[in-house]
Design the sequence.
């Protein structure tokens, strides 16, 4: 006990500016909670059986990891104020229960409240925050749900920040789930406090209803969805809008259950099961373990969906995903089946929050119906019938470009792209051949089309002192550039220096990961070294993309550049990030410069030329 009191004294002196534990809830947390089905009727055998069921039924493999004990586990506090579990319900103690759950590869969560009493009338944490956090840590707890009952006179920011600091001081990483009901708009202040926060009061297992408890009401699925308007900008990795626990398998129809699960996935809400796993029917298990729906919820981009169109009883929702993919949900709120006749090309998805766009006139996406299994593409209208109280859920992926052309496999252009027809590409290839046949080049620009239209005045002023040419311009991505180098008689050129510039088509248009794009860049560099063993390569960083430093494609570019930089040896291959010339100190591109960069003007070309000219001059000497 002396040691415990010493730890408590140390915790009390902990820095008031402590932060929540990082690295938790990088994607919305997944697990199970006892309240929806069992309320206060809980015991340790139920928790053990639930952990067993989570593993046996494949839910653990699907991503569910937390087994959370809600209210009413509490016994009494001892003379020193230490909380103990109810000895009759949890005779083995919480430490033994946590050890059992951990042995299954799962994590254990527990519940408390800001007030002196919990919602179920058990001892809350008010005045014992640091003491309780130390106790939970000593038991091996991994998750703390913190409620808002008996909160009269308390300041929400202060109450939740106190428990956050207490958890941090206890030294064990515990996910902090704030159950404040949205009364004090936690989304505006709790990003650094909790890993998730409730945005509404409790959920109720109905499609569109409000169930009165007298002084408060529980809300159905659609009522909770409607309260999320305007909140998506506050959600992201490590801080999620929590729409409350799932009611799948709790009395709604299968269509409603599927739609409910799809909505929570699209909205990046934590997926916390509330049904009895021990007696779950196979139909419910199939819904809750659908890995494609879960993947939308757990997508690493961490972007919450938004409603982009109303069409009577149908609502259209979109969620940007990593790797230039999208999820689209058509939600039927109504009482009758509804026909979908959606022209993709008539609607461009444009998200101001993530700076992501999908222009279906410019790019074709393959789509797959996650619940129904059908597939198609956005080149044709989407035609479907959506049952009442249900949702059509689609995952969209950009179509592969020219087969294996994006990457390390050399391939010619076979298709017309929005920015350049197949005929124009062929003409540019023929120009490559003509350049190669002439030979006698000192300085060769290879790769991205950024140099395609160099302003002649800028070109002559900057590079006119050397015999200079472009090659592979309009190659679009590394596979095309490789083909051009191998088939355009490039071996007849013997430049002293090759300036290689790689574009973002390797990411966005080709839908490649940074690692896949890097493999393509590496293949191009290897081909250049084979062609010109006595020449040197000035390897320009991949072009920055978009105005904002945190845009998903920009983050991919940063990772790709990190990999590309490893190709530089300082002798034959010199890596440099000239693209930074277009960026402000905060990493963002000013609107004034962005136009010159994306659609190069004389000013844009001059910025490029000035940025690289000094190094080119040195290397050419």
Sequence:
């Amino acid at each position: 006990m002396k040691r415990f009191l010493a730890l408590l004294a140390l915790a009390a002196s902990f820095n008031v500016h402590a932060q929540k534990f990082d690295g938790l809830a990088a994607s919305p947390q997944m697990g199970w909670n006892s309240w929806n089905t069992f309320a206060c009727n809980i015991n340790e055998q139920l928790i053990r059986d639930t952990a067993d069921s989570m593993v046996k039924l494949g839910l653990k493999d699907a991503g569910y990891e937390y087994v959370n004990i809600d209210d009413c586990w509490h016994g009494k506090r001892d003379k020193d104020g230490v909380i103990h579990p109810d000895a009759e319900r949890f005779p083995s103690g919480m430490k033994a229960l946590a050890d059992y759950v951990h042995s299954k590869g799962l994590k254990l969560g527990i519940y408390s409240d800001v007030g002196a009493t919990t919602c179920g009338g058990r001892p809350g944490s008010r005045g014992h925050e640091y003491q309780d956090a130390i106790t939970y840590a000593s038991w091996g707890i991994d998750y703390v749900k913190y409620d808002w009952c008996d909160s009269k006179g308390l300041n929400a920011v202060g109450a939740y920040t106190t428990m956050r600091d207490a958890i941090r001081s206890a030294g064990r990483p515990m996910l902090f789930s704030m159950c404040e009901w949205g009364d004090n708009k936690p989304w505006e202040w709790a990003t650094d406090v909790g890993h998730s926060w409730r945005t509404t009061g409790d959920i109720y297992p109905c499609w569109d209803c409000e169930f009165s408890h007298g002084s408060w009401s529980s809300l159905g699925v659609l009522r909770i969805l409607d309260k999320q308007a305007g909140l998506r900008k506050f959600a992201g990795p490590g801080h999620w809008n929590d729409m409350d626990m799932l009611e799948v398998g709790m009395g709604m129809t299968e269509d409603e259950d599927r739609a409910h699960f799809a909505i929570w996935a699209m909205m990046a809400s934590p997926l916390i099961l509330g049904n009895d796993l021990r007696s779950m029917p196979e139909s419910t298990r199939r819904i809750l373990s659908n890995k494609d729906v879960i993947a939308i919820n757990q997508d690493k981009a961490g972007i919450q969906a938004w409603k982009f169109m109303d069409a009577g009883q149908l609502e259209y929702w979109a969620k940007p995903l990593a790797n230039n993919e999208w999820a689209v949900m058509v939600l039927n709120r109504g009482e009758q089946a509804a026909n979908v006749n959606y022209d993709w090309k008539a609607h461009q998805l444009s998200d101001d929050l993530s700076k992501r766009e999908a222009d279906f006139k410019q790019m074709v996406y393959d789509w797959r119906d996650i619940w129904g299994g059908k597939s198609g593409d956005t080149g044709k209208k989407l035609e479907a019938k959506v049952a009442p109280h249900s949702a059509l859920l689609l995952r969209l992926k950009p179509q592969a470009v020219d087969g294996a052309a994006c990457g390390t496999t050399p391939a010619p252009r076979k298709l017309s792209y929005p920015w350049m027809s197949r005929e124009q590409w062929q003409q540019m290839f023929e120009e490559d051949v003509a350049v190669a046949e002439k030979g006698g080049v000192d300085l060769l620009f290879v790769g991205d089309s950024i140099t395609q239209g160099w302003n002649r005045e800028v070109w002559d002023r900057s590079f006119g002192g050397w015999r200079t040419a472009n090659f592979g311009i309009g190659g679009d991505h590394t596979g095309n550039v490789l083909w051009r180098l191998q088939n355009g008689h490039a071996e007849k050129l013997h430049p002293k220096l090759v300036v290689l510039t790689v574009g973002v088509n390797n990411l966005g248009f080709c839908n490649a990961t940074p690692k896949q794009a890097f493999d393509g860049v590496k293949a191009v560099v290897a081909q250049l070294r084979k062609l010109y063993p006595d020449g040197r390569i000035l390897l320009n960083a991949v072009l920055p993309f978009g105005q904002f430093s945190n845009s998903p494609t920009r983050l991919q570019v940063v990772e790709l550049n990190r990999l590309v930089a490893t190709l530089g040896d300082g002798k034959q291959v010199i890596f440099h990030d000239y693209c930074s010339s277009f960026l402000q100190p905060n990493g963002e591109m000013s609107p004034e410069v962005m136009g010159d960069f994306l659609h190069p003007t004389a000013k844009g070309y001059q910025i490029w030329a000035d940025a690289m000219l000094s190094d080119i001059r040195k290397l050419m000497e």
Notes: The first helix runs from residue 2 to 12. Residues 1-16 have pLDDT under 50 and may be disordered. Residues 514 and 559 are 6 Å apart (CA to CA). The radius of gyration is 29 Å.
